[in-house]
Amino acid sequence: MASFGIPTLKNPSSLSLSSKPRLPSVLSASFPNSLRFPRSTPQGGRRLLIITASAASSFSNKPTVLVAEKLGEAGLELLKEFANVDCSYNLSPEELCTKISLCDALIVRSGTKVNREVFESSGGRLKVVGRAGVGIDNVDLSAATEHGCLVVNAPTANTVAAAEHGIALLAAMARNVAQADASVKAGKWQRNKYVGVSLVGKTLAVMGFGKVGSEVARRAKGLGMHVIAHDPYAPADRARAIGVELVSFDEALATADFISLHMPLTPATNKMLNDETFAKMKKGVRIVNVARGGVIDEEALVRALDDGIVAQAALDVFSQEPPKPDSKLVQHERVTVTPHLGASTMEAQEGVAIEIAEAVVGALKGELAATAVNAPMVPAEVLTELKPYVELAEKLGRLAVQLVAGGSGVKTVKVSYATSRAPDDFDSRLLRAMITKGIIEPISSVFVNLVNADFTAKQRGLRITEERVLLDGSPESPLESIQVQIENVESKFASAMSESGEIRVEGRVKDGVPHLTKVGSFEVDVSLEGSIILCRQVDQPGMIGTVGSILGEENVNVSFMSVGRVAPRKHAVMAIGVDDQPSKESLKRIGEVPAIEEFVFLKL
Ligand SMILES: NC(=O)C1=CN([C@@H]2O[C@H](COP(=O)(O)OP(=O)(O)OC[C@H]3O[C@@H](n4cnc5c(N)ncnc54)[C@H](O)[C@@H]3O)[C@@H](O)[C@H]2O)C=CC1
Ligand SMILES: O=C(O)C(=O)COP(=O)(O)O
């Protein structure tokens, strides 16, 4: 397994000196406008996410990306700039499981089942699965989440291709193009047999009014069709904007001459067209499916075709792909089939390849990045705004846990967010995930990211409660400060305890940089970069110089110093930011300075 050489503290009781390498830390997360999440899709799927980590710059080896299905050249080129790329197509499930333990990322299309076994076989190395397309029904999202693996897809680049294929099938079906073509090639000339039906003036029900569905609707309107749509989650104004009426499921079935399916395959949509629902359809309805085969009960469709309820069907997708060659459905005379070609245009495949390569590389690099399916969405415009708060949250968690005395179990963490943003404009999931990461990673070998943060915290019995402190003033920045308190523990740095007996650290973002602003009841101000030495001392002149010169002798660069005191000439807490780790000897000498009552070295 590749080692990326990122030092992480293993055990808070030996904070200053022990370190261990760890895998690239990929943290995925999400935030919508002004820290609020939009509603999830029924898949629980969501789009843009924040990925933070500092792994890539420290890669000692390139990460390895396994590309298990054909990917456009432009995407491969992008991947190769950053990673070792192993293009191994047509792997058996066993071969995939064997290879996966050597891979940091896996890229697939719809033809590869990325099931629990794949995640289990990865031995924790697999950090990102990239689905070069939309549907992620071939990826076990729960298993991915439990294994801390981010799943990203390429949700936009093949939308138009899929919509165009839907329209192609609609027209081809209505005019018997495929059947007539086969007939002419067989030497026949059956002009009467292949009389079709017209599209103009007919009612098309678009089931699933998302990206593809709405593009199909737009095009069908251009063909003069009357378009209605059923989608329990689609906003009515989007439908209105393109002149489409949203209707109930039953109304769509009862009124449509043509039905085009564009919903994802989920437990709720599985076999949603079945004997019962076919019975509600207008006799002679025609059905197009470029979504997923599983949304139709295929045996029921054969019955509906034979009973004359369904006049024709045009199918790009099947519950089992490829379908059995002798499948009654595939062989049915009134059924037109294509081998899952919806996304297969030159243009879409280049676009998808670039989209997925960027998402996977972004995730592996640990940058604020693109798309995730097993994490909620963050609109791009809020990513920049949030980045320093995300860092602040993780670092406060990291600091707080390092202040816990060995032997104290960390069970309850209380987080307060001071903000002047309205309650419905504030969602803390990303920050909570970062704090969880900061708390858990230094004290365990578990790798935490947004995807598995709540799950991991729960598994470890860590309870994180949150409160929001509403401030007056204009909500220009998302947050004024974050306070992290660890309850019912002792601290190795007694001054970090608040009056009410918790370890307390507080920070805020200043000029885009996270700062530590409070430790226990002492105000400090030190930028959260590098590492920090906290000293409690008798407040007297010369202390900064004394400690500074010990560090200077060892050439440890001091980036920041700040002294917070309770009252002049009483106790003060000095926070010193250092770029490098001081030696044991220097730390010992700092501890021996007579006015210094206690000190701790904390790694960020
Ligand atoms: N044949 C092919 O090659 C391709 C197939 N697809 C498939 O097309 C489907 C749609 O893709 P996109 O439009 O990009 O996804 P999308 O997520 O933009 O749209 C899906 C829509 O379905 C709706 N929906 C969910 N449950 C529903 C239900 N029970 N009834 C009605 N609507 C429901 C959602 O609210 C959403 O608006 C997916 O299954 C995708 O895998 C997409 C691209 C290519
Ligand atoms: O993007 C999708 O959902 C698709 O169905 C396209 O699948 P493919 O990448 O062509 O195997």
Quick tags:
single chain; 604 residues; alpha/beta; Rossmann fold; 60s Ribosomal Protein L30, Chain: A; 4 domains; six-stranded mixed sheet; 18 helices; 24 strands; 30% helix; 22% strand; disordered N terminus; binds 1,4-dihydronicotinamide adenine dinucleotide; binds 2-oxo-3-(phosphonooxy)propanoic acid
Sum this structure up briefly.
α10 links the parallel β11 (258-261) and β12.
Would you give an account of this structure?
It is a single chain. The protein is built from 18 helices and 24 strands. It folds into four domains: about 65-155, NAD(P)-binding Rossmann-like Domain (Rossmann fold); about 190-335, 3-Layer(aba) Sandwich (Rossmann fold); about 380-520, D-3-phosphoglycerate dehydrogenase, domain 3 (60s Ribosomal Protein L30, Chain: A, 2-Layer Sandwich), CATH 3.30.1330.90; about 525-604, Alpha-Beta Plaits, CATH 3.30.70. Strands 10-9-8-11-12-13-14 form a seven-stranded parallel sheet, sandwiched between helices. The chain has a six-stranded mixed sheet with strand order 16-15-17-18-19-20, covered by helices on one side. Helix 5 (about 160-175) crosses helix 7 (about 210-220) and helix 14 (about 380-400) packs parallel to helix 15 (about 430-440). The protein is elongated. It starts with about 25 loop residues before the first strand and ends with a strand. It has about 600 residues and is an alpha/beta fold. The longest helix has 23 residues, at about 380-400. Bound molecules: 1,4-dihydronicotinamide adenine dinucleotide and 2-oxo-3-(phosphonooxy)propanoic acid (HPV). 1,4-dihydronicotinamide adenine dinucleotide (NAI) binds near residues 207, 209, 210 and 290.
